[in-house]
Each structure stands twice: as C-alpha cells, then as structure tokens.
Amino acid sequence: MRQTLQSLLTFGREELKRHNNPEPELDAKYLLLEAFRTDMAHFLMNRSRELPDNQEIREMTRRYREMIGKRALRIPLQQILGVQEFMGVSFFVNRHVLIPRQDTETLVELILKEHPGQGERILDLCTGSGCIAVSLALRGRYKTITAVDLSSEALKVAAKNCERLLGEGENEGRQYPKVDLRQGDLFMALKQGEEPFDLLVSNPPYIPTAVIEGLEPEVRDFEPRMALDGSGDGLEFYRRIALEGKAFLKKGASIYLEIGYDQGTSVKAILESNGFRHIRIVQDQAGRDRVVTAATDSNGL
Distance between CA atoms of 110 and 108, rounded to whole angstroms? Predict the structure, then answer.
C-alpha cells in the first residue's frame, strides 16, 4: 500500500477520533511531525510524496503509531512529546509533574510587572516542573529563588529544567539567580532562622477532591493527584500558606497565589483572617479570577 505523510496523518486522526480525542487532527499532526523529525512547512511540501521503504522510515512509522496508541489512551500530548511551552520557553515534563498551563502565565507576568527584580529573595512553593521559578530566573533580576516540592520525582524534573534552561547560571553574558531546589511539605523544607523572603509565589493544589473524578481523563488519570488535590473544599493549601508563611516572610513582603476561577473571595478571606494587607484578586485574559496577591504588614504581622 502506498504510504505518505498524509495517509499517516489520516490514520492517526481517525484513530484518535475513534477514541474520542478532543483534538484528533491537531494531536495527530504534532505527533507526526515529532516522529518524522520535520516541521509544518516540509510536511506541506512533501505530504503527498510516497515514502521510501527503508529501515529509517519504518522506524519513524513505528514510533508514530506507538505515540498515536498512547494518545488514544488519553495520555496527555505533552507527556508523549516530553515538552510543554510556557512563557515562550519549552519545559521538559513527564507524568510526575503538573503540565504547565497558560493560566499560570498570568501569575508569572503579574510578578514580573510588579516586581521585575532588585535583588529580592523569592520562595516558590509546589514548584512541580519548576516553570514558575525558572521563568522568574530567566526574566527577573532576583538574588535567589528557593523552589520547594514534596515530590522527589517532581524535583528531578525541575532540576533538569534548571540545568537545561539556566545552564550553570550564565547565558549570553547574563548571570541568572541561583534556583535552590528543596524537598519538603511546604515550609517544612525551610530552616528556622534562615533569611526571610521578599516574595512568596505558589500554584498549589486547589481542586476539591470530589471534583477530580469529573475531570478529563488526561488530567484525572495521568497527571499527579498530589498536584491537583486541594482537599475537600480545595482551600487547604491556602490556609497553610497564610498561617505558616508569616515566619518566613519579611515585613512588607508580597505573596502571589494562583487560584481556581471561583476561589477568589474565599482565598481573600483566608488571607485577611491571617493579617495580610493590600489584598487583590486579579483576572486572567479570559476575565476569570486567577491570582490573589497580598502583602504582609510593613510593621510586621
């Protein structure tokens, strides 16, 4: 049978459609380009040409069919490809970390706008892939960034992204701030008495436990549950951050938290009850509540 890139794309699309993939054409195309190590321009030029029957093409075809099989099982596209773009940078991802979302770019962009960096110390809780910490290191002018996660496997991913994207701390003549990766349960990874932080950022687990079972299979079955589950009402981590964080923040320090679209009022109330000031709820590009930001009292909490 005559085989072309177009015929392979058609096979992949129909296979994914048969398994109720939400974007069968797009996903099949991404996987085809990856398997055949090509780009869209060359695909369009060569899609109707018969592929030669040689070992290299057979191996590429085998890999493509294997990836289509994984996607048909609803394994996330990003986990199959091993990358996800965030803030214009490709981050390595796998099944041990939450896949970076565009929603979280709102959080990073807000910090960079309001705190572009003048030697501050930043604390990133629940770092996962390290996408927030690394993005801030790449674009800001901070002294140090401490990134914490409970999962040792997630920290391996974050370490790989730090090494690949920040190198040994220098790129194109610029010295990036050190990203200090630590394992632990939120503030338990820190030492009592260490220098307090100027800024705390976190995209914590915030989905209510009962809601997780109703999520898309890609999220429910293949992303780490510990990065999703925010307990019964989804607010457990905000309570802990608001209560426990005071001992590790400077007077007048800022805090930036990603939230679910319907959690703004609740998280604001949690911060208020713990003495935070200047609390704001910030919307994302779609107009949904996405970030709550606040500050400690300049006279101390």
Answer: 5
Q: For the segment 150-204, what is each residue's pLDDT rounded down to a tens digit?
A: 999 999 999 999 999 998 545 556 778 889 999 999 999 998 889 999 999 999 9
Mean pLDDT of 264-290: 96
pTM equals 0.92
The three-state DSSP-derived secondary structure of the chain is CCCEHHHHHHHHHHHHHHCCCCCHHHHHHHHHHHHCCCCHHHHHHHCCCECCCCHHHHHHHHHHHHHHHHHHCCCCHHHHHCEEEECCEEEECCCCCCCCCHHHHHHHHHHHHHCCCCCCEEEEECCCCCHHHHHHHHHCCCCEEEEEECCHHHHHHHHHHHHHHHCCCEECCEECCEEEEEECCHHHHCCCCCCCEEEEEECCCCECHHHHCCCCHHHHCCCCHHHCECCCCCCHHHHHHHHHHHHHEEEEEEEEEECCCCCHHHHHHHHHHCCCEEEEEEECCCCCEEEEEEECCCCCC
Question: Which residue, 181, 78, 47, is CA-closest to 39?
Answer: 47
